[in-house]
Specification:
The protein is an all-alpha fold. It has ten helices and no strands.
Length: 218
């Protein structure tokens, strides 16, 4: 069991180094919250080690982040991790994580589903709202452009590349997340966080009406 603990300690330190300077809302703080939520959602049938390894590594191959690793074998070799019988499940689990606009839903193991729920929950509630605006700002997307109202992704490519308002992300993802949560504990947490998302969404558009004034023209 010692090598499992050692692996987790190494992964924790290496992931922290990789993501501590992230400016897209996918920093090590996000990882820590996902790990914390994963521990809350764990059930007796799940392998805690596998779930935690997936949680720490779930962003490692995300194409948004452009990290320097192509596969899990490379990570194990570079970081000096000990391969165990859990390797295959960890690898498959990492690859199955990610919302991808809801356009590419992967089949998941129990452990991966727990981590997926934890990851989605961190995109909801107050933290999710903050991360959405933080990410949009990092990509130069507008705070709110009236000409982009109603613009949302229609496929995975446009989900990644289409220029849109931050609130478009609420329409295409954040307000849909509660329906993608599978674990029972996750559903309970999602209910509260979804209510906050909906309240913010409704209030945002209500306050936006303050800008509906006739402009003075020469």
């Amino acid at each position: 069991m010692k090598h499992l603990t050692n692996n987790l300690e190494i992964v924790q330190k290496e992931v922290e180094k990789l993501l501590k300077s992230d400016k897209t809302g996918h920093s090590y703080d996000h990882i820590k919250r996902v790990v914390g939520l994963t521990t809350r959602l764990l059930v007796d049938e799940a392998c805690e080690y596998t779930a935690l390894m997936i949680a720490y590594l779930h962003e490692i191959f995300d194409d948004k982040l452009l990290l320097p690793y192509d596969n899990l074998d490379e990570i194990y070799e570079t970081w000096g991790l000990v391969k165990t019988e859990h390797f295959s499940e960890i690898e498959k689990g990492i690859k199955s994580i990610g919302f991808k606009g809801g356009f590419e839903v992967s089949e998941k193991s129990l452990e991966a589903q727990i981590v997926s729920d934890a990851d989605l929950l961190d995109a909801m509630g107050a933290i999710g709202i903050g991360r959405a605006f933080y990410y949009a700002g990092s990509k130069g997307q507008p705070f709110h452009d009236y000409e982009l109202e109603g613009v949302v992704a229609t496929d995975y490519v446009s989900y990644r590349s289409k220029n849109k308002n931050v609130m478009g992300h609420f329409d295409e993802k954040l307000l849909r997340l509660k329906d993608f949560i599978v674990t029972e504990k996750g559903k309970q947490i999602a209910q509260k966080r979804h209510k906050m998302l909906q309240l913010f969404y409704d209030t945002f558009y209500e306050e936006l009406k303050e800008g509906d004034v006739n402009e003075v023209k020469d």
